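PROTOCOL LOG
Step 1. Enter all chains and additional molecules of the complex.
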Amino acid sequence: MPSTDEELVARSQGGDLDSFNQLVLRWERPIYALAYRVIGREEDARDVAQETFLRAFRALKGFKGQAKFSSWLYRITLNLCRDWIRRERRTPVVQPPEGIDVIELAGETSPSESIEELVSRHELGRAVGKAMSQLPEEQRTAIILKEYHGLTFQEIADLLDCPLSTVKTRLYQGLSVLRKQLREAGVESTFGK
Amino acid sequence: MCDSKELLVGFLYDEIDPVSKRTFERHLATCSDCRFELAELGATREQIALWTPPDGDLGFRIVRGAEPAPTPPRFRFFSFSPAWGLAAAAVLMLAIGAAVANLDVRYGTEGLVVRTGWNHATDAQAAVTQVDWKAQAEQLDRRLRDLERSAPQRSAVQPVSASSAMSDAELLQRVRDLVSQSETRQQRAVAARLSELMREYDAQRRLDLATINQGMTRLQNTSGSTRDAVRQLIVRTALDTK
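Step 2. Run joint prediction.
Step 3. Record the structure below.
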């Protein structure tokens, strides 16, 4: 039975480095994914993820468990992303791959999915990334936390320090803008149905 | 009801209390606009779910007391060869150039003259070398004559003039032998030095090629190297401050 985050945190605070590394292993991919979706650059997202764990480790003694460990990590990550955006003074740019390697993609194909469908799926992913990068930061962050990390409205509100109603409004506005942009990009709204 | 986007979003994400949910469901049954908007937003959610980040090679971990792993710069084309290596190679090439360039080997009646490098020995210097040989020959001649004078009875059977003529021939032969030995020694020394230089040059060239090859491989695998470096989170300072 794997240990819970709380148990690992407690052991880490007692000086058990292995326990903290288990937390890192458990959360590195969601944290990296969050950073990538917010700032849109792979290398920088990796740096942000690394810095997140470094800061978490340094501040671990001060973590009292008021929030979930994951929420605490998300907060650190979002702060770092915000710093990055401010420092770079630019909106996130999603860097799509130069081209789609069909052979490479073929390895990801499910038995029921053709190459055409696979390429279409990747093209759609790129279109979504581009549309997402054009959203205002607040809307983009709310959608990312909700759609890709499954946080509740309340958890998002706590993370972003805003009222619950604001979170819902940002989600609605963000989704509406995305729907419009994707339609303009030629993405069929019936895709996947 | 149609103006309550919060209710619609709550219903969309199924984060709505049961009473509000039933109320909204009743509304949906009669409002085509809300049904349409709900369907569209639902489709958009399906679309954005397909946006996945690239597979970053992570593997972060905290290492206690380890030295920080050097993070290679993204572009380090010129850093694969250390400065001292380049400097040594440059000096070696200069030495080879100076040794081989304008190599001037002369052999004549004055003996063997080897001149190398850009700064040729002057004629005066060459003359000094020749004078040495002459002085040596004259000294040898004097010694031979002294010996002959000190022991005239040993060569009584031979005429003095003949004895003197033979001494000159021997002297000449001796001088030629000395010159020949000197030539051989110098040729061997030059050949040995050239061979040594070529070996050093070849070894350095192989080392440089291997280093360049490694550097190119490293350059091609920059992302891989970066990934490897990023794998370790070193928090020595954090640990030290505890």
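Step 4. Note key features.
The first helix of chain A runs from residue 5 to 13.
Chain A touches chain B through 50 residues (CB under 8 Å).
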